[in-house]
Design brief:
heterodimer, A: 388 residues, alpha/beta, Aspartate Aminotransferase, domain 1, Aspartate Aminotransferase, domain 2, seven-stranded mixed β-sheet, three-stranded antiparallel β-sheet, 13 helices, 12 strands, 41% helix, B: 161 residues, alpha+beta, Alpha-Beta Plaits, four-stranded antiparallel β-sheet, two-stranded antiparallel ribbon, 6 strands, 22% strand, globular, binds pyridoxal-5'-phosphate
């Protein structure tokens, strides 16, 4: 008998729905929850930036742009990357404007992975890499990072994960969910290992602007790395532009050409209004970034201090807007801890296991919330840990 | 920003923030924050714990203007469309529909008179539906009803990773 449900792609049907989704659905049904769960800024896109988008609509700019994005916009991206991170990319040949950093990651993976290729994914990490590797026909190889290293990737760990089959390495620092960052020296250590291999690098630098203790360095700025690296950039986090769905890839010509095929057939072009809007962000948004960053910085200090005062071990995250404290000492699994906290005190935080098995014993708390909100959550958490 | 302005901008948003919390947030000694707050309380920079900040007591320049607007009302919508559009500008602090010789009254703030004048000339006067503007600068503030708009403060952000 014809069973349409068996007719779908098995690679897709075999991908497990993300565990965090279940948790979020639960959360959506509850009232009076103080959540520290969202992975996006609590700021609205700065007004002058929104205004640029509105102006573009008023001027009737409602067409498709060229596949790789408005050249004027790509030029601004190139200027910005050069100004902030000393990266030099040719706007005509080495930049593709994408639908979020998300699409950029997908393009990079699909353009690199052949069936059976391994992609090293250091965990805990953002949820998309492993499923996208699988969808591209590759094999995601989880590389568990360690708390004692503050969840930084070390050259030794990387060396031990590399095999003949390694096609690419995903680097995602500043990291979601841990807030870990890598210094220039630490990246140089990794680059030394990478240079000895044939691996490509997919560097998700979407949080590159949000570092609090030192300026972000891109792996592509380190010797020998540019030629084998795709840098994934975006607007969602630094400019509070998640809903505009805009990101980009920076990669050498040979690499960009291939990703451009996937992008042009699958997507056509990124939203035109968003592109015009983001030109303004790049031209006149540096101060906005500084303002928001100062705010996150202050909240980071607050939330870490409050957690430590509760006797919860928490390393000082150097970037992004998350803290990743150790909650294992309370004798519950991450999921049990988070569910109990949600049911008993109506505080929502995300179990570390949502970001890979190595997140067991930890939880992610986002501080993309007002100080008052964070304090309220911490007060409730204080009551909760007393009961454990 | 200097330290006083940083402290003020936090307290303006939330007068519950105490020196201890601020010290943690700004990574400064609690005594230093306390000393700054005490000095600002003494010199009248901090006027009230509602918390109302008198920026004139700081090194931040600020001018305020009352602006009268004449507009063309739209069918069905009346003055709403123009009023709502104007309300989205951050420089515009209040928008009222008035009886009498003009339609809308706004309070606009800027760093200098020039800022405000340019804003009126470039953004308001050119807006569709606006037919005339008259700008009156505030010389001295006697009473300031800091209007808080009815706002939907529910968190509408989707839960994403
Ligand atoms: C590490 C990381 N990369 C990429 C993304 C995707 O961002 P976007 O597609 O909005 O640019 C996110 C979003 O949460 C993220 O945390």
């Amino acid at each position: 008998m014809f069973d349409p449900t068996t007719r779908l792609n098995h690679t897709i049907t075999e991908i497990k729905p993300s565990g965090i989704r279940k948790f979020f659905d639960l959360l959506d049904e509850m009232k009076d929850v103080v959540a520290l769960t969202v992975g996006q800024p609590d700021f609205v896109t700065p007004w002058h930036i929104r205004d640029a988008g509105i102006r573009s609509l008023e001027e009737g700019r409602t067409y498709y742009t060229s596949n790789n994005g408005l050249l004027e916009f790509r030029k601004e991206i190139a200027n910005y990357q050069s100004r902030r991170f000393s990266l030099e990319y040719d706007p005509a040949k080495e930049i593709i404007v994408t639908v979020g950093g998300s699409e950029a990651i997908d393009l990079a993976l699909r353009a690199t992975v052949n069936p059976g290729d391994e992609v090293i994914v250091p965990e805990p990490c953002f949820v998309c890499y492993a499923p996208l590797v699988s969808m591209a026909g590759g094999i995601p190889v989880a590389l568990p990072l360690k708390w004692e290293n503050n969840f930084k990737l070390t050259p030794e760990e990387l060396r031990s994960a590399l095999t003949e089959k390694t096609k690419a390495i995903v680097l995602a620092f500043p990291n979601n969910p841990t807030g870990a960052c890598l210094t220039k020296e630490e990246l140089e250590g990794l680059a030394e290992v990478i240079r000895e291999s044939d691996a490509l690098v997919i560097s998700d630098e979407i949080y590159g602007e949000l570092t609090y203790d030192y300026t972000h360095t891109s792996i592509a700025s380190i010797e020998g790395m540019r030629e084998r690296t795709v840098v994934v950039g975006g607007f969602s986090k630094a400019y509070a532009m998640t809903g505009w769905r805009l990101g980009y890839t920076l990669a050498p010509d040979y690499f960009t050409k291939q990703m451009a095929k996937i992008h042009q057939y699958g997507i056509m072009c990124a939203p035109t209004t968003s592109q015009y809007t983001a030109i303004e962000a790049l031209k006149n948004g540096d101060e906005d970034i500084e303002m928001m960053k100062a705010e996150y910085h202050a909240r980071r200090n607050l939330i870490v201090s409050r957690l430590r005062a509760l006797g919860i071990d928490c390393f000082m995250p150097e970037g992004a807007f998350y803290v990743f404290p150790y909650i294992g000492k309370f004798g519950l699994s991450s999921e049990e801890f988070c569910e109990k906290l949600l049911y008993e005190k109506h505080v929502a935080i995300v179990p570390g296991t949502a970001f890979g098995e190595s997140g067991e014993g930890f939880a992610r708390l986002s501080y993309a919330y007002s100080v008052r909100h964070i304090e309220q959550a911490m007060d409730r958490l204080a009551e909760f840990v007393k009961t454990l | 920003m200097n330290i006083r302005n940083t402290i003020l901008s936090y307290m303006e948003k939330d007068s519950h923030l105490n020196a201890k919390t601020l010290a943690v947030m700004l990574n400064l000694p609690e005594e230093e924050i306390e000393k700054e707050i005490a000095a600002m309380e003494a010199d009248g920079t901090i006027l009230s714990y509602k918390t109302v900040v008198n920026w004139e007591k700081t090194d931040r320049r600020m001018v305020r203007a009352l602006i009268e607007l004449k507009t063309i009302p739209q069918r069905d919508k009346g003055f709403d469309t123009v009023a709502e559009r104007i309300s989205t500008y951050p420089q515009v602090k209040s928008v009222f529909l008035m009886s009498g010789g003009f339609d809308l009254a706004l309070f606009v703030e800027g760093e200098t008179m020039r800022d405000v004048a340019l804003f009126v000339a470039e953004k308001l006067a050119t807006m569709e539906g606006v037919t005339a503007t008259a700008t009156h600068f505030v010389l001295q503030t006697y009473k300031d009803n800091d209007v808080v708009y009815e706002q939907d403060t529910t968190d509408k952000r989707g839960n994403s990773w």
